[in-house]
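Hey, I was hoping to borrow your eyes for a little while. For a while now I've been wondering how a particular protein folds. The fold is given in discrete form, as structure tokens running alongside the sequence. Could you read through the record and tell me how the tokens relate to the sequence? Take your time with it, there's no hurry, and the full record follows here:
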Amino acid sequence: MCLRYSLTRLTLVAFTEALIEAADATGDWTPGYNIALTRRMPVVIKCPKPRLEAMSFGIVVPARPPARKATIMGNARADTLLQRPTFRDAARHRRCLVPADGFYEWEKHGTARLPHYFTLRDRQPFFFAGLWEPANDPAGPASFCIVTTGPNALVQPIHDRMPVILGPNSGPVWLGDEPLDPAQLDRLCRPLPAEMMTGHRVDARVNNVHYEAPDCIAPIRAMFPG
């Protein structure tokens, strides 16, 4: 699952008639090389025009018996968005774009977890498909999660899921606040073609959610072409 990603820079992005300039529009945003749950990060919402908003990574699901405490959900499966009560309303009316420039998945190797970092082949920033929820506490932030789908041929040897990465044509459609029918969701949530991406293994220091440095994304050895 995609519970860790990077956003090392924000750039000027055009969607429909809106220009979203990222400088420090969210106030407290700083580059992130190992972004984990609960970190406040910028997302793009439509309200009614596209704008950047700082939100907490991970939607809080209230505890239900026999669970004793709330759960933080960083991912939502694309194939069950319209069935699961946790995500159904957000999938219809509160879809968002999550700026990123890479993400991590972990390979199981015996008892070890080996982190791998994936980016676009041209190393440009992109958007994950996301969902968001308003804050439960008026004083707290809204929250978001990342939608996942099946893996492409590049990610599949490492993990059986990958985040939905939206192209320039699909981003504006996803950002709309009107419900999408199942066929539209299926088209938008297909895995990005493997030939558009590259990846490499990174140091196990990334396993520590508190480790944050530019060398998080540096390859320790070439794993994939490109």
User: Anything to note?
Assistant: DSSP finds three helices and 18 strands in the chain.
